[in-house]
Amino acid sequence: MKHLCTILYYFVLLWLIFAMPAKADQLTLQEQIDGTPAGSVLVLEDGVYTGQITITKPITLRGSKHTMLEGNGKESLLRIENVQNVTLENIHITDAHVGIVVKNTSQVNLLNVQLQNVWSGVQIYNSKHVVVNNLKIKGINGHYSKKGNGLDVFNSNDLTISNNKVQDVQDGFYIEKAQAIKLTDNDIKNSRYGIHFMYTEDALAEQNDFNQNVTGIMLMMTEDAQLQNNHVTEQNGLNGSGMVLFEAKNIDVLYNHFQNNRTALSTQKLATSTVEYNTFQMNQTAIELLRSNKENTVYANDFVGNIVNLRSDGTSISISQNYYDDYDGIDFDDNGIGDSPYVALQSFGQWMVRKPSYQYFIESPSVVLLNKMDRQTNAIETEQLVDKEPMMYSAQKATTEWNIQLWQVVTGLTGLVLGLWLWRKEASV
Amino acid sequence: MKKRGLVVLFSAVLLLQACSNKDFKPRGIVSETDVCKVCNMSIVHEEYAGQIALSNGDYEMFDDLGCLIEYMKNLNKGDVGKAFIKDEGENNWVDVKTASYVYDKDIWTPMSYGVIAFESKDSAQQYIDKEGKGKLLSYSDLDSFKWGVHH
């Protein structure tokens, strides 16, 4: 009996220690949020916080150097709903199905948030005036068809999404039915599409870096967009494209650099759009035009080292004053414009439009011979894929930054003088 | 000699008949390489995918029912062997012509057309009852359906 009482005593003691309700300083994160007055800043100490969280009041949630929110990989971890003026910063999120869900909000800022091992990073629904800056999103392992997107935006307007790094997701940014959206200085790689626009109006994608995705920018059923100064490289898989513009209107593709893509720019059902001042370098096909209308222009671009510069399904387009490195005309009047037209028409290029698998024969002897025959017969072509004013020189001025290191100059000069002195000394002996 | 000729003729007839009665079956999707014939999107949401087995033995793949219907409209009747769409409930291939459909502006599909397929009218109706939304459509309704985003 005495032993039984002792065991019971210790059991009650242990229960008091471990199972009693938490004290004020041991509140869960949700309890801390609930206890924070509207308009205040809640600073989170370093540590790992678990459990789902919902923010429905205007607060700032600020993490410290090592603040981590950890989920169970099956649910959305942090929800911001039906609220204005919420800021989330310096947080590290891991192991969540969806890292952050933002729904029916206004003036939400997501700053310096790192998300890893998440099926999908951030989802924004029916919101306005949202800023997403300096997020790092890394998806789960596996094929992109089994993953969610880095950032989803649905039915929202006035969004600024900048300086984010996204990799290993399905689409870096999936933008559906958004208005007034700016995507600048983002870096997206190893995903299906870098940016996927659907039914969007008034969009700007500027100075983004797309590398090794299936497609850099997939723009569909979208109007009034500017895609400029982006660096689009190595989208070179079987179906790889730098940019695909599908059923779109009023799209300006300006000052972009396309390099090592299977197809740099593919347009389908495109209307009243411009492709100007871009550099197409070492792509398999630079520009592909399908079922697009006459009001599109391809002007003042550089085509350098591409296998096929332009190809189409018979689509007519205004092509003028581009520079082609394989143009072999001359400029007698020295006005910088070639005296004879440049004809980009290639039988094999046209065939590749219809059967993409023909790309694997692109440098075979028979195709090379066919291209040579095309050059002879193209002299009489006056309509299709003809640039009547090909430039003799590149439209873009190549800029090289000179980084002179003073110590390297001094060391080099000293070595030179010393060498000369030794040489003269030995010569005099 | 006459007998031998008859045997050859009979065999040839059988062979030709076998060729003309081609049994068109759906093929599996390869997410890495299959892209929609109409919109060029990779097919990653298999549950909404469609395909046409052409009479010449080729297959064309589609990411959304709307793309499949648009493509079928431009084909000659003899070019189409059989067209298939994924059943929303069961994730198996069903004949486009015998399937039933549900449309609602809030149903997400890869092209946001909002139309999903079911093997039977009953299962389509069950979906509408369960979700409390949706309009029942038949294959013939798809011909005049206005494809595009509706929200």
Automatic annotation (TrEMBL), chain A:
<dbReference type="InterPro" id="IPR007742">
    <property type="entry name" value="NosD_dom"/>
</dbReference>
<dbReference type="InterPro" id="IPR006626">
    <property type="entry name" value="PbH1"/>
</dbReference>
<feature type="domain" description="Periplasmic copper-binding protein NosD beta helix">
    <location>
        <begin position="136"/>
        <end position="324"/>
    </location>
</feature>
<dbReference type="InterPro" id="IPR011050">
    <property type="entry name" value="Pectin_lyase_fold/virulence"/>
</dbReference>
<protein>
    <recommendedName>
        <fullName>Periplasmic copper-binding protein NosD beta helix domain-containing protein</fullName>
    </recommendedName>
</protein>
<dbReference type="Pfam" id="PF05048">
    <property type="entry name" value="NosD"/>
</dbReference>
<dbReference type="InterPro" id="IPR012334">
    <property type="entry name" value="Pectin_lyas_fold"/>
</dbReference>
<feature type="signal peptide">
    <location>
        <begin position="1"/>
        <end position="24"/>
    </location>
</feature>
<dbReference type="InterPro" id="IPR022441">
    <property type="entry name" value="Para_beta_helix_rpt-2"/>
</dbReference>
<keyword id="KW-0732">Signal</keyword>
From TrEMBL, chain B:
<dbReference type="Pfam" id="PF05573">
    <property type="entry name" value="NosL"/>
</dbReference>
<protein>
    <recommendedName>
        <fullName>Nitrous oxide reduction protein</fullName>
    </recommendedName>
</protein>
<dbReference type="InterPro" id="IPR008719">
    <property type="entry name" value="N2O_reductase_NosL"/>
</dbReference>
